[in-house]
What does this fold into?
Amino acid sequence: MTITKTQEGAKLTVAIEGELNTNTAPELEKEFETCLDGITSLVIDAQNMNYISSAGLRALFGAAEVMQENGDMCVINANDEVKNIFEVTGFVDIIDVK
It folds into this structure.
C-alpha cells in the first residue's frame, strides 16, 4: 500500500493505492494519528485502492470518529468492489462514500 497526502489549508486528501488490509491498516492508523490536528475536511481518495478488509474499515472508522469532532470526512473515487464492501458493512451510514 502507498499513502500520498496532499494538504490545502485545513483540507487533507489521503490517496491510498493498493490493498488496505490487516497488514497495511496499522500504517494508515499511524498516519492519521500524526496528521489530523487542525484538519477540518478529510478526503480519502480510493481511486487506486483495490481492496479493503475489516482492519482497513476500522482504520477509516477511527479517522471518522476524530473528524466527527473536528469537521467532515468522505471517501471518493472508490471502485465498485470497495463501494460494495462499504455498503454491505453499513459503513455508508457512517462515512460519506461518493
The radius of gyration is 12 Å.
